[in-house]
Amino acid sequence: MYRIGLVWLQDDLRLDDNPLIHRAADECEQLLFVYCVNPKWFQHNRYGLITVGAHRWRFLLESLTELRKQLQALGQELIVSYQSPLHTLAELFGQFPIDALYSSEHAGQYERTYQRLLQQRYPLIKHQQVNNNTLFNSNQLPFSLAELPDSFSKFRRKLEQQDLRQAIATPLAMPRQLPPPPNFVGALLEHHAAGLPAITTPHHAEFNGGELAAQQHLNSYFASAAASTYKTTRNALDEWSASTKFSAWLANGSLSARRIHAQLCAYEAQQGANESSYWIFFELLWREYFHWYARHHQQRLFKFTGIQDKRPQTSFYSSRWQQWCSGTTAYPIVNACMNQLNATGYMSNRGRQLVASCFVHELELDWRYGAAFFEQQLIDYDVASNWGNWQYLAGVGADPRGHRRFDLAKQTQQYDPKGEFIERWQGDVAAQSEWIDAADWPIQN
């Protein structure tokens, strides 16, 4: 047993099906829980954007507030620190005789760098890492991480050939009790949370942050018949019930992939399995693939040449970039999707494919800027899925066909034949038919 354990929460903001918390509770006499809001998230990055935009920040803060209430009900507390992890954890290590640090394995390069630095700086502390955000553990995969298949289809076939769906662990129940915090924790709460950014976007009607909202939505979805028609409705641009909408809660860990899978299996047992219900599992496998993809390729997830080391024939034109971001391009369907994103922090999967294809092919822009804009705006931003999907559309990722291009006129006719979505989101703006690039030389990479 350890005397004091520190649970460093990241993309695992839940008590349900959280092996990290169960392990820490089993091994420690006292526990500290901390979440680090890094000030760098709100500073301009190399793309002239911020990492966490207003919609994403509102959803995250709602999630943290809900988690704190849940921990308080079990006699615990959540320290939300407005400092970098290295700074915050150094302070806590100096204030308490902490024996063990618990954290979830992360797909992100920067998050793994923080974990590695902490291990180097504090070798006397026991560093415990738990796989907490995927369907499978690494030792369940039928290949090593170094042998990760180079396409999703190959990945899926390898899993399904061995029927590994049966190996997905049963979700863990929410803990009924937790070890207490050390003395004097209360005095730290206001100190660490001082200066947190204000909420500047209104409360969202459907996307409410936190585990309680996640569980309510999960139960509501599978109480309906939506899963039985998912494959035929999932490409709708704006209807709430057309797709599962689990992604926002999955992204910050308010909901686990294993819990979704368990609910899906229960639904199929009661209502019958069909191609649509399977397609929900299929989408979970896509998320799974990109998680291991990010772990395997590491910094290449963010390279202009991608994992294929292939240089796209694109550059950066500031006027085109501004028009895409503001929804004022020559393509109404793209404008409507971007206006929806900017207003709500969400865009359908079909919409994301269309605006990304336009970004890379019609506007000939550096795909990394599009990925960074999504990182800023999306409440369901997930580092692996976001950057992996952008590489896929840019022709430098895991797509065996390479450089897919969507016919925007055809897509508009198929998914918005009456122009209702474009009208609702004011996509039919007066846009320039020719890009003004004469005095706007591209910035070379």
Describe the model.
- It contains 18 helices and 5 strands.
- The protein has helices at 19-27, 54-73, 85-95, 109-121, 152-161, 186-193, 211-223, 230-233, 247-251, 257-271, 275-297, 318-326, 332-344, 349-362, 367-377, 383-394, 408-415, 420-424, and strands spanning 2-9, 28-36, 79-81, 100-104, 126-130.
- Strand 2, helix 2 and strand 3 (79-81) form a beta-alpha-beta unit.
- Mean pLDDT is 93; it is low at 432-445.
Secondary-structure topology with pairs:
Layout: E1 2-9, H1 19-27, E2 28-36, H2 54-73, E3 79-81, H3 85-95, E4 100-104, H4 109-121, E5 126-130, H5 152-161, H6 186-193, H7 211-223, H8 230-233, H9 247-251, H10 257-271, H11 275-297, H12 318-326, H13 332-344, H14 349-362, H15 367-377, H16 383-394, H17 408-415, H18 420-424
Parallel strand pairs: 1-2, 1-4, 2-3, 4-5
